[in-house]
């Protein structure tokens, strides 16, 4: 199977504080902090998703010591790349100078774990040696900036990982339950003069409370399942990299699993929810801060639109 050889991240420069949001919608720093844990988020102004995905990809390649020409596959998880076609993965391929198959996957916030699972299949079939995964969303361009119940939650950015042959993937699980009512972002454009349905605006709709209930249950259930599948116990987990959507979801998962809270890596205060970018940004920051030690057992878990979940357990074998 595979090992993670290197990681990278890229976020836009602009830092939007809770106070700035309070000038746009009826909200305040105290509500956002206590209900979500978010203090600020990054928002794209001059940066394009192409610039950010390429930056994250190059950072991961450099960290892994892998040249673009060595790559056998590029997977980009995103809800909305620069174009409908070519895929964002093909755009990344061109920009970094790789020459392997490349495609996108959309599993909303669970995209990074979905991409890892797809890569695992390629390794099982012995089709690849080096794989690049880039997970990036640019939610600010589909956020309803007049809706205080959602616009305070999200931010832009993403991360990347380079995989090589190894045996560090100990378990991985994906789920999906077709649900287009609690979390949905319509396409927003239809140029056909023949189409008879009304065009919907491309903005994010979310029934926060419903997603919250789903998320709290999913975090605990899916982490437990992957740890059991790996033949381990929850005590064996050294670090949890959870989807960064709301600090209360992370705190509740820690309590429900009886895993010490300090084992959960958390950076939601700085980035908000960056969708599929969230887990790989957190993984990169945990790795580069020296928190992850060689031999550590890491559980990762994400949930989001679909409704999807992805969880996995890996051994960290990087020095
Ligand atoms: O990646 C997956 C995506 N999504 C998620 O993970 C989101 C999961 N859900 C959540 O994190 C939480 O449900 C939210 C943070 C979205 C909402 O927190 P909550 O504690 O469930 O608040 P609520 O929706 O029950 O709203 C409580 C009150 C309401 O006022 P009333 O009806 O009690 O008077 C809201 O209108 O807070 C009000 N409210 C706000 N007040 C100030 C909602 N948004 C805001 C706001 N500022 N931004």
Uncertain regions: pLDDT < 50 for 5+ in a row? none
How would you name the CATH homologous superfamily of the largest domain?
Answer: Thiolase/Chalcone synthase
> What is the CATH T-level topology of the largest domain?
Peroxisomal Thiolase, Chain A, domain 1
- In total, the number of domains comes to 2
Structural class: alpha/beta
Mean pLDDT: 97
CATH architectural category of the largest domain? 3-Layer(aba) Sandwich
Question: Could you list some keywords that capture this structure?
Answer:
319 residues; alpha/beta; Peroxisomal Thiolase, Chain A, domain 1; five-stranded mixed sheet; four-stranded mixed sheet; binds oxa(dethia)-CoA
Structure, described:
The protein has 319 residues and is α/β, with parallel strands linked by helices. It has two domains: 2-168, Peroxisomal Thiolase, Chain A, domain 1, CATH 3.40.47.10; 171-315, 3-Layer(aba) Sandwich (Peroxisomal Thiolase, Chain A, domain 1). The chain has helices spanning 18-22, 29-36, 49-64, 88-96, 111-124, 148-151, 208-229, 247-257, 268-271, 278-288, and strands spanning 2-10, 14-17, 40-43, 73-77, 102-105, 131-138, 156-165, 169-179, 183-184, 205-206, 239-242, 297-304, 306-315. The strands form four sheets. A five-stranded mixed β-sheet has the order 1-7-6-4-5, with helices on both faces. A four-stranded mixed β-sheet has the order 8-13-12-11, with helices on both faces. A two-stranded antiparallel ribbon has the order 2-3. Strand 4 (73-77), helix 4 (88-96) and strand 5 (102-105) form a beta-alpha-beta unit. The protein is globular. The mean pLDDT is 97. Residues 27, 31, 35-36, 109, 148-149, 152, 206, 208-209, 211-212, 215, 245-246, 273, 304 line the site of oxa(dethia)-CoA.
């Amino acid at each position: 199977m595979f090992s993670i050889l290197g990681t990278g991240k890229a976020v836009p420069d602009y830092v939007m504080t809770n106070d700035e949001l309070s000038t746009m919608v009826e909200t305040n720093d105290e509500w956002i902090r206590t209900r979500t844990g978010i203090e600020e988020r990054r928002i794209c102004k001059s940066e394009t998703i192409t610039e950010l995905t390429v930056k994250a990809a190059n950072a991961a390649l450099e960290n892994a010591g892998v040249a673009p020409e060595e790559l056998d596959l590029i997977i980009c998880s995103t809800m909305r790349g620069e174009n409908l076609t070519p895929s964002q993965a093909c755009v990344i391929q061109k920009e970094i100078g790789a020459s392997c198959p490349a495609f996108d996957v959309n599993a909303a916030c669970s995209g990074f774990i979905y991409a890892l699972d797809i890569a695992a299949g390629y390794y099982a079939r012995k089709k690849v040696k080096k794989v690049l995964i880039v997970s990036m969303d640019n939610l600010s361009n589909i956020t309803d900036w007049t809706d205080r119940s959602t616009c305070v939650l999200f931010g832009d950015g993403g991360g990347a990982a380079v995989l090589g042959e190894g045996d560090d993937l100990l378990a991985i699980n994906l789920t999906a339950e077709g649900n287009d009512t609690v979390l949905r972002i319509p396409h927003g454009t239809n140029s056909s003069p023949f189409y008879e349905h009304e065009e919907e605006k491309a903005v994010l709709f979310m029934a926060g409370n419903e997603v919250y209930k789903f998320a709290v249950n999913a975090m605990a259930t899916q982490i437990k399942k992957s740890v059991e599948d790996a033949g381990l116990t929850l005590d064996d987990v050294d670090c949890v990299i959870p989807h960064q959507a709301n600090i209360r979801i992370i705190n509740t998962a820690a309590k429900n699993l009886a895993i010490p809270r300090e084992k959960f890596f958390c950076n939601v205060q700085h980035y908000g929810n960056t969708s599929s970018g969230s887990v790989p940004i957190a993984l990169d920051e945990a790795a580069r801060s020296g928190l992850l030690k060689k031999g550590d057992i890491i559980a990762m878990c994400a949930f989001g639109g679909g409704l999807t979940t992805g969880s996995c357990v890996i051994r960290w074998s990087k020095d």
